[in-house]
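S., here's the first fold you wanted:
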Amino acid sequence: MAIADCQLCSSNPLLSQETNRQSDMNLREIFSKRITLARVYGIPVRIDYRWFLVVGLSSWLIARNLQSNILQLGGFQLPPLAPATAWVLGVITTAGLFVSVFGHELSHALMARFEGIEIEEIVLHPFGGLARLRSEPENPRAEFRIAVAGPTASFLFAILAFGGSKVAALGEYHATIVVFFFLAWGNLLLAVFNLLPGYPLDGGRVLRAILWRNSGNISQATRMAGICGVLIAGTVILFGVYIMIAPNWRPAQPYFMGVWSIVVGLFLLDTAWKVVKSAEGARLVTVGDAMSAPIAIEPELTITQLIDDFLPLHRQTSFPVALKQQLHGILALEDLKSLPRERWRLTRAREVMRPIAPRFFVDPAATLEYARQLMKSNGVGSLAVVNNKGELVGFLQNGRLKVRHESHRSGKAT
């Protein structure tokens, strides 16, 4: 079971000279340490120390079931296995499940990288895993794609594992059937659970993307997705209690399953509640809050006209090149330094502009923090703002950003 993409909030206790506080801090440090396992596609993969406890517990539970119960696996029954065989299969199955969790998170990370977002790390922790992104997605479409990448991978793993169990059944490889059977159902549950529409689950991020798209307000969308997450967390907790006390439905380990469901529910509740409170207390500023009206030049404008007519009125270091609100590129004054003065009257803006590319424009609903990072790295220090109809509606320049707070009252980016 993975809680994908949620950002865990680590506490930073105040330094104190008191011995008891110092020992508490040391204990926290021990449990918060992580092992760097590998780097995959340049992304650090780390393991929380507490993860080993869950691996051991999972291996024990699977081994115990294989030793003491007759399992119905598809079309055949598996009799109880010898302890050594059961433990080997338990360890292999648990390893396969956590590799699946890693594949789930890697799918998020690779899709985020495709959307131009840098990845901090992938962490495997007691509740599954998470992929830490260095910045928020720039628009609802990117948020949606990143969110669905994980469950899509888990569904694919489940299909492959079910297929593997069928092939193993043809050859009567019973041990292989056991591993594939558990992997198939584990991945299916992982995908379905993560698609529940509440933050911080993947389904909650999908919901946030839809609400963000409809309202244009990422803060409001985050708050609503967080509220849904609180409701789902409460349901998971009540389900855990029901498992422990229900007279007519008792799974193999009712108390373990009940307690685990309650713990997962509390984890979800804590994270979702923090999201709701942070969304109420502070609003993420969008590009639409800070953009200015675009002072665009036409592609056929000569450099002489730009220097003589535009620059005296508009002291900018770059200009969007557009015709009828359709962006063609960005012209940076820096690029004119290599152009001889005698050629200014013959050279058109389209000949020296930087052609349109993803690094030169953003959506009005993108976060301002993302836009700032893009301006630092795109080489021109500015961005054209293009809406979902492909129209140039604004312009951003480093050092000239003024946030208009009145847009918050309307609930939409302007």
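And the second, which I think is the more interesting of the pair:
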Amino acid sequence: MTTKSVIFLTAALASGFAMAVGEADYSVSEEHCTPEYWEKLPDGKKTEDLIDKCDDLEPSENGGSGQKVR
């Protein structure tokens, strides 16, 4: 493995790790459909979209909430 390849691989891994650590997860899940999780997210369209998607779930799918709290 050449020095150039090692540098490229290191940079790619570091970049991927930084993106994974710094980006919030807006996927719909039982964990993400709670007011406690929403409070940790920044205000914005992505957060509002997540809340709307969670509100559309059946109560059993979102921890029984079914209400927008934020």
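Why I say that: The chain has three helices and no strands. The radius of gyration is 18 Å.

Talk tomorrow,
H.
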